Amino acid sequence: MSEAREQHLDELREIVAEVLEVEPEEITETGSFAEEHEADSLRAIEILARIEKKYKIDIPQSELPQMENLKAVYDVVATQAGWQD
């Protein structure tokens, strides 16, 4: 895994953990936010808003259903932000 990808994953993990009020270590790449951390749609929107603000990008709300775990969030953000990790 590239250093840039690792850093981006860590940053996204911090954002998700803060919104879901859990420790970052509890967020795995493939763990479902809804099933493991009882995330609801309001929290999903909050995660989306914080990511958009941090990286100064716009993510279509239509992407929200796909953003169910850290890896999926990373994939969506990487596409929108043009990361070449």
TrEMBL record:
Signal peptide: none annotated. InterPro entries: ACP-like_sf (IPR036736), PP-bd_ACP (IPR009081). Residues 3-81 form the Carrier domain. SUPFAM superfamilies: ACP-like. Coiled coil: none annotated. It holds the Pfam family PP-binding. This is Acyl carrier protein. The lineage of its organism: Bacteria, Bacillati, Actinomycetota, Actinomycetes, Kitasatosporales.
